[in-house]
Each structure stands twice: as structure tokens, then as C-alpha cells.
Amino acid sequence: MIHPASPRTDMSMPIAGPAGRNGPDTIPVVLSMRDLSLSYEGADGELNPVVHEVSLDLRRGEILGIVGESGSGKSTTALASMGYRSPNVRVGGGEVLLGGTNLLTLDVPRLRTIWGRRIGFVAQQASLALNPSLRIGAQLAAPLKKHMALAGKALHDRQVELLRMVDLPDPEAALRRYSFQFSGGQQQRIAIALAMSCDPEILVMDEPTTGLDATTQARISDLLRALVRERKVAVIYVSHDLGLLHALADRIAVMLDGRIVETGAADDVVVRGGHPYTRALMAAAPRIGTANLPTPAAGASDALPVLRARAVVCTHPGAGEPSVHGIDLEVARGETLGIIGESGSGKSTLLRAIAGLMAPTAGSIDFQGDKLAPLVSKRPVRTRGEIQLIFQNPDSSLNPRQTVRSILTRPIRLFRPDVRRGDETAEIRRLLAAVRLPDSLIDRFPSELSGGQKQRIAIARAFAARPLLLLCDEITSALDVSVQAAILDLLKDLARENGVATVFVSHDLAVVRALAHSTIVMRHGRVVERGETGAVFTDPRDPYTRALLEAVHDLPPAEAPHV
Amino acid sequence: MSPIAPAFSFDKQDTAARRSLWRSLASSGNGRLGLALAAIMLAVIGLGPWLAPYPPTQIGLGLPNQFPTWAHPFGTDDLGRDILSRFLVGGRSVILVPFVAVVLSTVVGGWLGIVSAYAQIQPRLRWIDQGIASLLDLALALPPLLLALVLIAGFGTSPPVLILSVAAIFAPRTGRILRGATQAVVTSDYVAAAQARGESLSYILLREVLPNIAATAIAEFALRMTWGIIFVASLSFLGLGAQPPSSDWGLMVAQARPYITVSPIAVLAPAAGIALLSVALNLIADALADHLDPASGQPGVPL
Predict the structure, then answer these.
(1) What is the tally of structural domains in chain A?
(2) Which of A253, A306, A400, B262 could form a disulfide with A263 if both were Cys (CB 3.0 to 4.6 A apart)?
(3) Is residue A102 in some structural domain?
(4) Domains annotated on chain B, with CATH
């Protein structure tokens, strides 16, 4: 990964932590947080504590993972480790020591001499972190000019060296291009090069690979390991993915409600973790190796499949190459078909074509033995109700200006002639109970619900229409693992009780493994592998499937808790 | 259910996001000031004709260009008309013409923008968007005052012509703003979900899209009103709007201008009226914009 010829300048030597702060294993501590407490100040001046008395030591050349679910305060903690707080954050106490200086007492001009020079930051979404109107060269030059006073050839050489370090093809040409001309993985590499530009002692990374494909994620992790090994940079790596941190980090701190509930060597935390929350996280994470296969669907061998697609081709208007390139599939009553693929594999386009939101350019789709009209507007009302689509992100799929009641009333009015006008409320209560939500949410707006609750409402909306075919598009990828586990259980139960056929699209192999009876692996719009889920996962024949499986960081089973 | 308790909750922040428009207006300093000022101005304009002590167009009530007296608190103009009476009556055309024109331009321009943005995401309807967008671009390229001049020269200076001219000038501008606001909404999955239910076009636009751009439309309306008032007053000042002997504020400024050194109040009173009205609406529009994007009120600097 690291270019062998890349010379290190003297300026880039990491500075060891102050004497006397050395850890037991004599590796110097570079950053130390002591009893850090932070609160968010609300509009009414009320303080909501987000971080409680967090103490962490970061040693030279180690990767410290901070794991937690959304709202646990992990990102706030990571940002505070650089001395950064958003404008509404108040410091309740504690200190962040970098070489004996408390960063929390410095003003912004002083912090700016440290940010980029001694501490590098990598944000979650490189596409948003990189400036779309500046060439990569200009963005890389800024910190080098500011902190290292490089200019002319020295500046150019350093820029090229940095891009080579992160393994970007053709660095010379890349300097003249804009960020949006690179793929998501390449953008994150550029962001890492930017953070590493002045050879900082510390790299703070906030979910740097979330949203990237599994294979891309694995390559970024490899790069990070090499950087740590060769440059001895200390890394704070925030993630919600315990499996990823187990494979990557030296030590892991587990955060819950703003507190560190457990910290230790990665293996100790994961395998012998004693805290109930760590064990709950472990239990909620779906695994490829150990999950029980779903029980065979009753009646899966019925003669007539609910859905049968033949040689479906979909081309987006204006695009030359079709995004779906001749797909065949069949789903029987009560059966779940998993479709695995990375972004751009055409899996979502295929679902939209089945749902009638986009007309296929060729091929046929049969539903219950009858040919489906390509567009939903030409399909009979009954069919529209019987095919239901659940979207990835409930923030986008629920109208923020409609209450739960009006969201659920609409499909009942349209697709449920058996429910009389005026009786909708009873049916809504039944649906809320089915997705394990209390009645009290009925008049809430989506913004008043948690992420998991919102997705349950989206599922309830789909089941309100009494579907025969459920199309699920990455429905758990925006959720925390514990919420994901609950949603998957719910979906499994509902699908079994109602005997629906399900097409479940995901880039997460473990989720598909836990849910699907049979599995299709898609790449570039084509099927590269298909079969019974167990066979696909244990004996993959296609090299791409094997690469996908290898890129997954499966958690080991937890040991029995110590007494 | 999962064994894990729900993590930190952001409920507080979220309920704040759907505070009602009125509450949010009343809670900001700008909004309160704007609402109070607008209420006073509307009261003056609305009740003015009943409060006016003299008929506004009667000449020779006193000596020409008389200084304020008890009989004429604002003095008289060059024809001996009572300035206070003319001021109290003259606000109506200043607010009515722009109001009708802006309602018209928001409805017409807004629908053009919404339909255009919705057509953009439908491969088979994209030509509609391209057509509307080019039309709006073309209309925006015409200089507003020149366009008004041509229309008024061609069709006369009656209020309906004035209203239609102003609406024609504002509609493409409002259309562009609401097209942008709608573009962000129509790509949401809840619109796709409505399409998948087979909802009609009018249901999708009225029930799914419109509530989500209503706040933008209201802020745009308030801002457009301030421009409308100044634009119509400018037309009257140039002799293209209200005609003598009517007591329109813009016309009053134009007519009293030669005598500004003798009778400054004849220019200042209507000018102040126009200014206060547009400041009030501007403050309201500002507060509405803050309500739409609470972050814009805060400096983005860390710490």
C-alpha cells in the first residue's frame, strides 16, 4: 500500500507524548482525555448531557475503536478529542491533553495550528467533506502551504507522494481532477491523504467507511493498517460496526448513553466482553458463519410462483449500458429471496421495475401467473396493493408533514374494501400492534419517532395493504444493529404469518444469510451466482462472491460471561 | 424486541422542528417587530378612508403648500389639498395592487415551478420541464421595468393592466424558486411510495408535495410582496401607475417632489409609508426564512 520510495521528511517525525504519561507497555500516550463531560444546549437553554466523564488514552501507533449506536455520544467524543465542539456544545468538565496542553482551553486560532498539522480528521462522507469546486491538487496544497510552508516542486512532489501513499491510480492526473470525478472509495482515500498530508500524530476518523461497499471498506481498512504500521500514527476510529472494529482496532471502547461502559484489547472486549450492553451488541449483530438458516418456507414448492421475472433488462434513460442486464428470478408464496450486490449492481433498479416505478426495456414480469403491466399506473388497484415496496431510509419514505394516522389511513382506504370508512382507526391500532408499536404514536409526526420506530411505520404501511409480495430495498442499512435485529425478526414473523413472498435486497451479506431461503448475487446488472442461501454462503463458486464473503468481518461467538 | 434500551433521544430537537409558523414568528425579535409594524400599517391603510378629515381630492381646502396647522396636521400640497387625508387614503392602492399581483404570480409561477420539477423526474414527461424551464429563463432575461413600460404603454394604466404586468414580471421568478424547492421534495421516497400506490397526479402534488414546500412558498410570498410594493410605487412615481388626481403614495411623492423644500412632509409622509410597509414585510420574510432553516441564524464557526 505504502509506496516503498516515499521518503519521510524530518518535519514529519511524530512527537512523543510528554514524559511521565507513558503507559504500562511503555508506548507513549499521545492524547489523553480525562473525565470529559459535554452537554448540548437546547433552544430553551436547557442542557442535555451527551458525554459523561469519559477517560481514554491514545497511544502512538495504535487504532482505538469507539463503538456505539446512534446517539451514544461517540462522534461528539471523537470531535472533542480534537478540541472541536459544535456551537451548541457546552463543556461540563474534564480535559483533553495533547502533549500537556488542554485542547479545550485553546481558542480557534490556536486550534487551527494543531488541526491538520498534529491531528488529522476524516469525516464520514468524503463526498461532502471534499470541496466539489476545487481541484484535488488545490485542496491538498492548502494544509501543506499553511503548516509546512511547502511551495513549488517540493509541494507538488509531496502531493503526488500523498496520493501514491493512499494507492490512488495516476496521482499526477488526479491532482487536476475534481472530487466528484472519483468513486466513493477513491474519495475516501483522497480524504485520508488530506488528513495525513502534514504527517499528524493523530488521525480522528468518524465512521470513515460507513456507506461504502464491503470490498471497498476492506481495501480502506488495509490502507489504514499500513499507515499505522509504517507511520506510527495513532488513530481514533469511530464506528457502529463491532465486527469491523474487532478486525481493525487494537483496543475498543464501547459507549452507551454518553458513557464508556467497557474498554480493553479488541479481542478481550469482543470475545470475553463482560458488560451486558457489549454482549447485547454482539447478539444483535448478524453473522455469516453461525446464523441458523431460515426454516424452509411452507408451500415453497407450490406450482405457481408469486413472482416470476424473465430476462428483465432495465436501462435508465440517457444511460448507454443497462443497469439490469437480463435477470431471471422466481419467488414462491412464503419464500424470501435475497439479492446481494454492491451499490451500482442494479439491485434497486430491479426492485423499482417490479414495483412498476420504472418500465423494463425488455423481458417480462409475471405476478400470480399473470403478466404485469410495466408501469404501476396501468396495473389494477388490487395488484398495486398486493405488491408493496419498503424503502431504505424511512426519513425519506415517510412524508414529514403527515401523521402516522394519515400515513397508514391512505393504503387502507385504497386497498382495503373490507375496512369500512370510519373503522380505519381500529385497523391502524391492529397494524401498530403487529409492528410492536404503542397506540400512543398514532398522532405523531415522523420527526417525533426514532429511526427504528419510523421503519416500523413504513413496514406497517406496506402490510396495511395485505400484500402478497413484499419488496424490501436495504430496509435495515440506515438502522443500528440492535434495531436492525428487531426489525428483521419482525419482518420474518410478519412474512410467515401472512404467507407473503419477499424479495430482500441488501449489500449486507449477514442480513441476507439470516433471512433469505435462496440468494442471488448481482454484479454490474447480471447474476453472478444463485442458489440456496446455505450453498451460496458455504460453497460460493463465483470469485466475486468469494471476495464479498472474505471482505466481511464476522464476529466470533461470545464466551460465557465471567462470574 | 431488542434487549438494548433506546439510546440517547433527540425528541426535544425534533419537536422544535415542527413548531408552528406563527409561534416561530412570534418568538423571534425580527418576527415580532415585523408583525407589529405590519399590523399598524394595515390598520392605518384599512381604516384610513374613514379617519380622513377631508375628501382627499378636494382642492383649495387651504392655501397651497401650507405648513402644518391644527386644521391640516400634515399641511397642504401645491393644490391646497389636505396631505393627511391623501396619506390616509393613498395606502390602499399601494398595498392592493401588489397584493393581487403577487397572489396571482405565486399561484401561476408556483404551479409552473411545481409541475416543472415533478415532470423532471418522469422520463416521459421531461420535455415539459425542459419547456417550462426555458420559458422561465427567457422571461427572466427581460428587464422588469422595460417590460412593465411596454405592457402599460400598450394596454393603458388601469389597475387590471398594472396587476397583470406585475404578475407577469414576478411569476417566472417565483417559479424558479419553487421549482428548486420542489426538486428536493419530488426525489423523496414518499413521492415514490405514492406513485407505487398509483395515486393521481393531483393527489401527489397537493397532498405529498405542497405541504412540504408551503413554508418556502409563504416566505417567498412575503419577500415578493415587499418588492411588489416598491415596484408598484416606483411605477406610480414614474407616472405609469396610479394617475392624478388619485392619492397613491408613489404618485404623491412624484407630485410633491418639486416643492420638497417648501413642504417636505408632502414627500416624506408617503415615502415613509412605503418604507415602513416594506420593512415590516421584509422582517416577516426574514423570520420565515429563519424558521425554514434554523441554522442560518447561527454563525457556523466552531466553539
Answers:
(1) 1
(2) A253
(3) no
(4) 23-296 (1.10.3720.10)
